[in-house]
Design brief:
The chain is an alpha/beta fold. 34% of the residues lie in helices and 26% in strands. The chain has a 6-stranded mixed β-sheet, sandwiched between helices. It binds adenosine-5'-triphosphate and magnesium ion (MG). Magnesium ion (MG) binds next to helix 1. One of its GO terms (cellular component) is plasma membrane.
């Protein structure tokens, strides 16, 4: 069984009197531990692709299977989603009234975990992400990189097999973007997470196990660059 399977998926949105196609007959199969990049310019449909993968958007035609199930058809879909698919939003969406740790614990509570046990797990995740300071800070006191790490911690707290990250490096400087990208690569390589990342940062393309471009709804696999020539 593959982790994510899109078969003949199409999706359009109304655009004035016309329809804008953001997914045009897309076929895509993703397995455990893969690190997939979805690249493309603004408005090309990257976020929509990720939302199709966790059931936040339903396709007009075609089928989306996640861990062998159709998200929209699952009883208790919301709980299923936060346990199976960690999502790091483009604009992080941390709750402004809660510090970093409580933002993460909140997600675990929704999933039904006991607070005491999960507190320890949250602390371990903050340490793993190198974000201990952010645990005690309110979102407005965090740097952009810290907010992104807290958003990753929140996505990881329920130990989902799938992580979807929507342009997680977009607001970071070069070094912080590199650190955060490496973190996702590590989660996929060492923890067998299936990671799908939307990005318009071309620097990272060769570091995905597979990278795709989306343009006018058409998904095309990027050719890996030829290996550096030996001199
Ligand atoms: N719920 C919606 N209703 C109508 N149109 C939408 C909706 N969601 C997305 N769109 C449109 O679909 C297109 C693709 O949007 P999407 O957010 O997937 O692009 P994106 O590649 O993630 O862009 P960006 O790089 O700016 O985040 C855009 O033109 C957007 O306006
Ligand atoms: Mg987007």
């Amino acid at each position: 069984m593959s982790v994510i399977e899109l078969t003949n998926v199409s999706k359009s949105y109304p655009d004035g009197d016309a329809l804008q196609t953001v997914a045009d007959n897309i076929d895509l199969t993703i397995d455990y531990g893969e690190f997939i990049g979805i690249c493309g310019p603004s408005g090309s449909g990257k976020s929509t692709m990720l939302k199709l993968m966790n059931g936040l958007v339903t396709p007009d035609t075609g089928s989306v299977q996640v861990l062998g199930e159709t998200p929209a058809a699952i009883n208790g879909f919301d709980k299923w989603r936060i346990k199976k698919v960690g999502f790091v939003f483009q604009h992080h969406f941390l709750l402004p009234e809660l510090n970093g740790l409580d933002n993460v614990l909140f997600m675990a509570q929704i999933a039904g975990w006991k607070r005491k046990w999960v507190r320890e797990r949250a602390k371990e995740i903050f340490a793993y992400l190198g974000a201990e300071r952010a645990a005690k800070r309110m979102p407005e006191q965090m740097s952009g990189g810290e907010r992104q790490r807290v958003a990753v911690a929140r996505a990881l707290i329920n130990d989902p097999p799938i992580l979807l990250a929507d342009e997680p490096t977009a607001s970071l400087d070069r070094n912080r973007a590199e650190d955060l990208f490496s973190l996702y690569a590590k989660l996929s390589a060492e923890h067998n997470k299936t990671v799908v990342m939307a990005t318009h940062d071309d620097r990272f393309v060769d570091r995905f196990s597979r990278a795709y471009t989306i343009d006018r709804g058409v998904l095309t696999e990027k050719e890996p660059l030829p290996a550096a020539r030996q001199l």
